[in-house]
Amino acid sequence: MDLHPSAVVAPDAKIGPGNAIGPFVVIEEDVIIGGGNWIGAHAVIKRGTRIGDGNAIHEHAVIGGTPQDYKFKGASSTVQIGDRNVIREGVTVHRGSREGAGTFIGDDNMLMVYAHVAHDCRVGNGVIMANNVALAGEVEIEDKVFLSGGVVVHQFTKLGRLAMIGGNSKITQDVLPFFVTDGVPPRVRGINVVGLTRAGHSREEIRMLKEAYRILLASGLRLEAATGKIQKIGSPCTDHLADFLLRAGPRGIHRKTLAARTIAGPG
Q: Are 254 and 176 a contacting pair, CB within 8 Å?
């Protein structure tokens, strides 16, 4: 392990092989860190944090801070971070607010400068959070979501897989998977063709999502009827979309759209 002499590491912290820990890093007690991580100067890894392998945690990040939640009464809780994440300067991630609870961040995510992940959030894999994104408590983000700079997300909301959210949007309801949501108030603007293509989805899959888009947002059908029609399309993406609609939270979903011409993509 490459440990700078100015770093402060609690005696009971468990740190695996191949880590590089920079100047003035603080690692508190009850921390477990895997192997091959890089931790930049002045980063703070607080009690209850569990970190996997191959992560890069940049300068002045604070991982495992106590929740900004009046209900928090000193419970023993965690932050759990997977592998190969990039956590940039000034990022803050808070641990769970209840006994035994946790905040979870998966693998291969990028959290850019000054992003904030509040207590009890669940972030999937391959998520990108641009500068100054702020998640309130108990937000769930599925895989490969892209949050542009300055997006703020209300507590208890869910962001669907491969959604793209435009800069400075104020998210107060669930965000549909595979679509672009943007604005204040946010509206569904079209299909996330770039994200879908980069993720390896075919033109035919995108065409079926365009059909689902029209059913949900341009047909005038009530949500229950539209969901039933989407279930009949029969592709993995439209099946996921229908399941997401059936599991939507009590705050509802962002679904208002501009004219049908905003639908983008091949076919």
A: yes
34 carries an active-site annotation: no
**The pLDDT value given to residue 257:** 54
Check if 119 is active-site.
Answer: yes
- Catalytic position from the list 42, 94, 116, 119: 119
Helix, strand, coil content of the chain in percent (nearest 5) = 15, 30, 55
Q: In angstroms, rounded to a whole number, what is the distance separating the alpha carbons of residues 228 and 145?
A: 25
155-186 pLDDT tens trace = 999 999 999 999 999 999 999 999 999 999 99
Q: Is residue 267 very low, low, confident or very high in pLDDT (cuts 50, 70, 90)?
A: very low
- With 0-12 / 13-18 / 19 or more C-beta atoms within 10 angstroms meaning exposed / middle / buried, residue 17 is exposed
AA identity, residue 57: I
Annotation marks residue 22 as catalytic: no
**pTM > 0.85:** yes
| Given the residues 90, 137, 190, 195, the one annotated as active site | 137
Rounded to whole angstroms, the Cα distance separating 129 from 184 reads: 18
DSSP class of 67: P
Measured CA distances, 106 to 89, 96, 127, 252 (Å): 19, 15, 9, 26
